[in-house]
Design a protein that fits this description.
alpha+beta; Nucleoside Triphosphate Pyrophosphohydrolase; 8-stranded mixed beta sheet; 15 helices; 43% helix; 14% strand
Length: 373
């Protein structure tokens, strides 16, 4: 398959079919970098409002470097995989210190930044700086595997090395095209083509501009390539959260560094291990006390990778002074004080449920309570 033919066909397709995405209206390396980090394991439709809010609040690298960790986590709240935003801020501070606040153009320097791997460095350098750097994300892997009929697991070294070689060949071919910005548009077109046409299931081969050259189509193997990884078995996990209210304030705590959802805020909670003896034991373990009464508040169901998580939240009426229960290092805050804090997604839903039960600015009133089992 001729790389020059492929590139020219793909660029013509992209010119007619590319989605109008806001980060495509700029060649700012900073704006493209933020979009690439947000798009890791996250769909475009989800990223769009986050990217717009981020760019409005933090319009340049210096703003990210100066922002408080709490502020950047709040802007990221709900996107998940929060290591991404911590690495992004760390990288922004390094750019301020080592590159005078200017995003580096050299590939190796980009690759050295926290949170940036080979694909992301290639995407930034090709899209922002029009360099002939290859890109190989999930979409591009699928496209190249089918076009060139690559067997084997694309995550393993032999097939992966071959795919990077093919991607580099296309980038080199794009650099020979005389039209301005060809390398930039090639990277975007490969990613876009995998998202819109060469999809994981039911690919739209009838509108593919190079269908006649596609090895997988010729061999009747489009649905087989690339080979799908065996899905990990799902695991059910159950947590309980205790929403303690006292004198118009709620008790919250911040998750420590080095754990899932590090630095985010949450209500006191605990995972119920198999065979654990009910809520009374759970309350004693997490709070150091056994509340006499509680109110079922809501149940949140969500998934993190292979885990299917159920979180049952209970409202507890506190009494006495402002001290925390023995087992908790937290803060008593009202709703106005809670609003700017970044919460873990499930706990943000609990906060939303509380808000539905109360007038603005107040904590929810008591409802039917029942003794702890």
């Amino acid at each position: 398959m001729d790389d020059n033919v492929l590139v020219r066909s793909l660029l013509r397709w992209f010119a007619r079919n590319a989605r109008d995405l806001p980060w495509r209206r700029t060649r700012s390396a900073y704006a493209i970098w933020v979009s690439e980090i947000m798009l890791q394991q996250t769909q475009v439709k989800t990223v769009l409002p986050y990217w717009e809010r981020w760019m409005q609040a933090l319009p340049d690298i210096g703003a990210v470097a100066r922002a408080s960790p709490e502020a950047v986590h709040k802007l990221w709240e709900g996107l998940g995989y929060y290591t991404r935003v911590r690495n992004l801020q760390q990288a922004a501070r390094l750019i301020q210190e080592n590159h005078g606040g200017r995003f580096p153009e050299d590939f190796e320097r980009v690759l050295a930044l926290p949170g940036i791997g080979r694909y992301t460095a290639g995407a930034i350098c090709s899209i922002a700086f029009n360099q002939p750097r290859p890109v190989l994300d999930g979409n591009v892997t699928r496209v190249l595997t089918r076009w060139f009929g690559i067997d084997g697991d694309p995550r393993k070294k032999p097939a992966n090395a071959r795919l990077w070689q093919l991607a580099q060949g296309l980038a080199d071919a794009a650099s020979r095209v005389t039209a301005s910005g060809s390398c930039s548009r090639l990277s975007q077109s490969l990613i876009e083509f995998g998202a819109l046409v060469c999809t994981p299931r039911q690919p739209r081969c009838s509108v593919c501009p190079v269908a006649k050259c596609c090895v997988a189509r010729r061999q009747g193997r489009v649905e087989e390539l690339p080979p799908r990884a065996r899905r990990a078995r799902t695991t059910a996990r159950r947590f309980v959260a205790f929403v303690i209210r006292k004198r118009g304030r709620l008790l919250v705590r911040q998750r420590p560094p080095g754990v899932v959802n590090a630095h985010l805020w949450e209500f006191p909670n605990i995972e119920l291990a198999p065979g654990m003896a009910g809520l009374q034991r759970a309350a004693r373990d997490v709070l150091g006390i056994e509340p006499a009464r509680l109110e079922p508040l809501c149940t949140i169901r969500h998934s993190i990778t292979r885990y299917r998580i159920t979180l049952d939240a209970f409202l507890i009426e506190g009494r006495g002074g402002p001290g925390c229960p023995i087992g908790i290092r937290g803060r008593w805050l009202n709703h106005r004080q809670l609003a700017p804090l970044p919460f873990a997604s499930a706990h943000k839903k609990i906060l939303h449920e509380l808000g539905k039960r109360e007038p603005p600015g107040e904590c929810p009133g008591p409802a039917r309570a029942r003794p702890l089992p």
